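Deliverable D4.2, example record:
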Amino acid sequence: MASDRLLTMDLGRVHPLYVAKAERKGRTRDEVDTIIRWMTGYAQADLDTRIADGTDLATFFADAPAPNPACTLITGVVCGVRVEELADPIVRDIRRLDKLIDELAKGRPMDRILRTVPA
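Output generated by the structure prediction step:
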């Protein structure tokens, strides 16, 4: 049930929450968008269009032009659930994004968030 609600959430409503969380901790919208683009392969213009047009999260992740294979390196607990153990690949991607935004808000360096250096 909670997964169904998560899948139908509007990216245009969720994105500002991600940005607000990051900005409260001194990070920027550009960093949030960099993380999303890294995960999905969307160009900034395409990301902005998806935010504005009411795309739900399930469609956003299902239509991602180039999902990053390094996303499999994102592990840990989000909302009390281990990300890597989620069965639904779209829900897993949504929770992976949540995990990366949490890392951003906690002050982790971008190269570590984007898994470009060993943890």
